[in-house]
From TrEMBL:
Assembly notes: Interacts with ribosomal protein uL14 (rplN).
One Pfam family in the UniProt entry: RsfS
InterPro entries per UniProt: Iojap/RsfS/C7orf30
Keyword Cytoplasm set for record: yes
The encoding gene: rsfS
Top-level division of the source organism's lineage: Bacteria
Protein's recorded name: Ribosomal silencing factor RsfS
UniProt keyword terms in alphabetical order: Cytoplasm, Repressor, Translation regulation
Cell compartment(s), UniProt: Cytoplasm
Entry similarity comment: Belongs to the Iojap/RsfS family.
Region spans: Disordered: 1-49
Described function: Functions as a ribosomal silencing factor. Interacts with ribosomal protein uL14 (rplN), blocking formation of intersubunit bridge B8. Prevents association of the 30S and 50S ribosomal subunits and the formation of functional ribosomes, thus repressing translation.
């Protein structure tokens, strides 16, 4: 008997619930995804536009933050560990102005090169800017704020690569 308000998945017998379709991509014991995520296309992309991979976005992000003199750049591979994104990049700027400039230029470059509409939070204060490109999450910190939150310690074990 199905719980109140739950209907069977369409086209299947009553034994399988609609939930099974949603959860079938995750390992039931850990809740982690069992396969790689499908590559995304930007919101403005059409069927004829070329797609891009998360590795291409990552390379563009790393080049952009390096070109803008970001410091202590850390790249973290999230594949198989999170459904949120494939990679995370954490870096620092020396001042609030530099943090905002690194973030703004990164978003502009990704929009020009890949037509990716990135979401950005925190640019107004310039202490910690979060940029969500879909495949790559980027955190740009002032050094004091980065030290306080120590975000990479939560994600780093065995999967990070430190660059200059």
């Amino acid at each position: 008997m199905l719980p109140c308000g739950v209907s069977p998945a369409p086209g299947r017998g009553g034994a399988q619930l609609l939930e099974d379709d949603v959860l079938s991509h995750s390992d039931p014991t850990t809740g982690l995804p069992v396969g790689p995520r499908a590559p995304r296309m930007s919101d403005a992309a059409t069927a004829t536009a070329p797609s891009y991979t998360s590795e291409e976005i990552l390379a563009a992000v790393l080049k952009s933050v390096d070109d803008d003199k970001a410091e202590d750049i850390v790249q973290i591979d999230l594949r198989g560990r999170s459904d949120v994104a494939d990679y995370m990049v954490i870096c620092s700027g020396r001042s609030s102005r530099q943090v905002a400039a690194i973030s703004e230029k990164l978003v502009d470059r990704l929009k020009q090169e890949f037509r990716v509409s990135s979401k950005m939070e925190g640019k107004e204060t310039g202490d910690w800017v979060l940029i969500d490109t879909g495949d790559v999450i980027v955190h740009v910190f002032r050094p004091e704020v980065r030290e306080f939150y120590q975000l990479e310690k939560m994600w780093l074990p065995g999967s990070a690569h430190r660059g200059a």
